[in-house]
Amino acid sequence: MKMKKIFAAMAAAAISTSAFAAMSLSASAADVVGVAGIRGQAGTYNYWSADENSGTVTVKDAQIDGNAQYEAVWDIEGDGTGSIEFLMLEIKETESLGNAFTKDTFPDLSITVDELYIDGKKVDFTQKDDAYDLAYYESDTKRGARAYFVANWGVNNGNDFDLDEATPITSQVKVYFTVSGLYNDGTSNVTPVEEPTDAPTETPTDSPSDTGSSDSGNGSDNKSDNKSDNKSDDAKTTTAKAADSKDTKTTAKAGSNDSKSEASAQTGDHGVGVALAAIAVAGAAAFVARKKD
User: Fold this and answer.
1) pLDDT at res. 221
2) pTM recorded for the entire structure
3) What one-character-per-residue DSSP string does 15-73 give?
4) Least buried of 32, 128, 164, 251, by fewest C-beta within 10 Å?
């Protein structure tokens, strides 16, 4: 009974230790401190917040919980647009944080826009320090960190990544960006982009050139040389054929002689066998005759 009690106590202690460890891991999980998304207006399409949008734009925002690379997506419906009036990446605080997601809250904060894709194709832009605003304040609901692709009016007017305003959008805008300077590593939500590939084109091959036509003198020399070479080659070939013919005849004769010799040898063997058989029969007959006598 004492041993059973000891084992029961050990099991209970192990279970409580495991539960404590699980609680510690859960408590140490990184908290989301910001939400990043694409905001702006392109033609008749606009999305500034869940309550302020055209209804034809849906977004995939990134939950910022530490230092990592993230992606944010803008999907549009309908026929698309041929212009961009205002487009930015914005990171705002969460309600639980209570503090603005700015450089004032995180002194070492840094944001870098890595790549921009529109309708699945990578779009070039100009990296500029002035296109980033890491401490933007307009109101309690409009504050945070921003990176401007196109800024044609109001805040940061002209200080953007020089994205062409006439860039058409038919289905999607996707931004890859990196956040650093926070206090822990974060959880990336990046999925690779598969860029459309053009159909392979066949490369035409150059037609062979006639090297002899460029120089008439060399051409005639080459022709005479080729003729003489061909004649000598023909003579060599004729001699080789004659030699081969002789060898073939010699081989045939040798083969014929070999065949005759082999046939004779086989005939001789059969003759010896017949003679031995006759002697054996004669001996047997003599033996029988003696027995009768």
Assistant:
1) 45
2) 0.58
3) HHHHHHHHHHHHHTSPPP-EEEEEEEEETTEEEEETTEE-SSEEEE-EEE-SBEEEEEE
4) 251
